[in-house]
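Re: that backbone. Tokens:
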């Protein structure tokens, strides 16, 4: 603010009879008016000539008292307003109604304009004769500009909302009732603004009462995105992506929610069709692979049967010779061979069967822990296993058997990559990663299998997930192990990645979406 003016005229410098004020009070009142700098407070005679001037007036308008006293107050109006006869109108309103209130542009001494909030009061003596006017003016340029900026940003926001054709946007109050929405929402849902304004978001959701949880989660973490089935006005349903963002100010006070709805039913249908085709292709590839396998497997079985017959023959011999200890040893080898054969059949069956995914919610750590024994037997004695499970449970939802098969597949790959032994490390934890669907990072449960084996070249690693890509001899590898892992991870909404360097081993990482247990998958599955 500017300097305090020193040469201001006292407020009552013209002869205006004051009927009520005793001397001392009058003096103090004058002092008060004089010291106000944020308001221009001055008086006009009945014709509109300036009769007094305070420091606020000097401060706001830039004129010293002697420059304005006696001049007509219209000098502060813009040319346009003067031409329109506004100053006269102001006085006549104040005279007729006792007071004039208004807001308009005024001109400072240096020619610049400011936005003024003006109050003009008529002053009358007890007999009703007009003595003049008291005028209070406030410079509200800054508030006015702020208001304009706000209006502009609101206008832009509205244009943006109306322009976002693919997205239905609506604003909710803190209770989740719809306050406002854009035209796309009508296009997507069939409801008009009149139908929904003031209604809870639940109106649009197929399941009753889920919007509360949705908003609560948005409130807790800032935003929340879920796939939900929504109801159109005509009663039909569609699958939508519903993203809700809590609108809170810097102090954390909630002002409502912004909600974005996108119809993803078509997208989901295409995706399902693609998955079906992939599944069919996969099944036919599997049959092909089985055909190719038969030769190898028959050969394997022959070998195993021979081993069994051999061991049993020798065992019989030992028994005839009365050497049961040696016979027992042979019987053990026979048993091992039987184990091997049944393992082989089990793998084949698991592979050949058409297994639909059966997702359940379970702790990844617990499931890995329960497999340690099996894994150790699978990788054999030459490979040392290290298991590092994170201390907290990792809840995920997927087909647990597929997970086990995948883990065994990956472990077998590791074993095969370490023909002279090495270390296989299996660890779990959490990892955050960017997803295409969400705006930010998402936290995943992470399962990592690392081996210290031969590793892969970049070119080989890029093919490792291809169906039938194998470097193993006929009968030993189908080339479908990693391809199955990949398919399974996609269906489980996770990812699988592979890092490898020749001679430096391989790391396979599986990321599963963490499941907080409030069952957001249901809406997707019955779509
Ligand atoms: N940990 C690994 N280290 C080195 N190479 C690997 C590793 N894992 C996979 N590979 C390479 O990727 C190929 C494809 O692996 P995938 O598991 O899909 O099939 P496979 O192991 O050959 O056959 P199957 O899994 O049916 O026994 C393997 O043949 C191997 O060349
Ligand atoms: Mg494999």
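Recovered sequence:
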């Amino acid at each position: 603010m500017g300097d305090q003016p020193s040469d201001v005229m006292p407020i009552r410098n013209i002869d205006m009879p004051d009927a009520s004020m005793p001397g001392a009070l009058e003096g103090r009142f004058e002092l008060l008016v004089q010291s106000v700098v944020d308001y221009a407070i001055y008086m006009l005679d009945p014709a509109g000539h300036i009769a007094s001037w305070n420091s606020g007036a000097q401060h706001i308008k830039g004129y010293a008292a002697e420059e304005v006293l006696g001049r007509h107050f219209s000098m502060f109006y813009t040319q346009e307003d003067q031409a329109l006869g506004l100053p006269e109108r102001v006085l006549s309103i104040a005279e007729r109604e006792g007071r004039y209130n208004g807001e308009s542009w005024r001109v400072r001494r240096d020619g610049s304009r400011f936005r003024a909030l003006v109050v003009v009061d008529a002053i009358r003596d007890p007999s009703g004769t007009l003595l003049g006017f008291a005028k209070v003016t406030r410079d509200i340029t800054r508030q006015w500009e702020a208001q304009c900026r706000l209006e502009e940003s609101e206008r832009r926001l509205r244009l943006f909302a109306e322009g976002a054709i693919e997205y239905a946007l609506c604003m909710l109050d803190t209770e989740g009732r719809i306050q406002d929405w854009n035209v796309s929402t009508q296009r997507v849902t069939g409801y008009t603004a009149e139908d929904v304004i003031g209604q809870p978001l639940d109106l649009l959701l197929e399941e009753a009462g889920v919007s509360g949880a949705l908003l609560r989660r948005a409130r807790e973490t800032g935003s929340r995105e879920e796939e939900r089935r929504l109801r159109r006005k005509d009663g039909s349903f569609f699958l939508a992506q519903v993203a809700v963002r809590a609108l809170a100010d810097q102090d954390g006070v909630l002002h409502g929610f912004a909600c974005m709805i996108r119809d993803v039913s078509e997208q989901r249908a295409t995706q399902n069709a693609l998955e079906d085709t992939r599944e069919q292709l996969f099944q036919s590839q599997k049959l092909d692979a089985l055909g190719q396998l038969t030769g190898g497997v028959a050969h394997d079985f022959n070998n195993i049967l021979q081993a069994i017959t051999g061991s049993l023959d020798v065992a019989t011999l030992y028994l005839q010779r009365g050497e049961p200890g040696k016979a027992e040893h042979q019987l053990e080898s026979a048993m091992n061979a039987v184990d091997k054969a049944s393992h082989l059949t089990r793998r084949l069956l698991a592979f050949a069967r058409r297994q639909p995914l059966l997702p359940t919610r379970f702790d990844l750590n617990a499931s890995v822990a329960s497999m340690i024994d099996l894994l150790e037997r699978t990788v054999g004695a030459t490979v040392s296993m290290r298991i590092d499970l994170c201390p907290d449970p990792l809840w995920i939802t997927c087909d647990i058997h597929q997970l086990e098969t995948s883990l065994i597949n990956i472990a077998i790959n590791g074993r095969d990559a370490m023909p002279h032994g090495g270390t296989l490390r299996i660890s779990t934890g959490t990892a955050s990663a960017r997803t295409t669907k969400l705006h930010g990072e998402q936290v995943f449960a992470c399962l990592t299998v690392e081996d210290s084996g031969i590793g892969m070249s970049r070119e080989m690693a890029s093919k490792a997930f291809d169906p039938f890509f194998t470097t193993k001899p006929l009968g030993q590898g189908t080339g479908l192990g990693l391809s199955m892992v990949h398919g399974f991870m996609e269906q489980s909404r996770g990812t699988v990645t592979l890092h490898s360097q020749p001679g430096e081993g391989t790391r396979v990482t599986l990321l599963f979406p963490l499941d907080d247990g409030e069952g957001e998958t249901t809406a997707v599955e019955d779509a």
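The first helix runs from residue 23 to 35. The chain has four domains: 11-138, 146-263, 272-354, 356-527.
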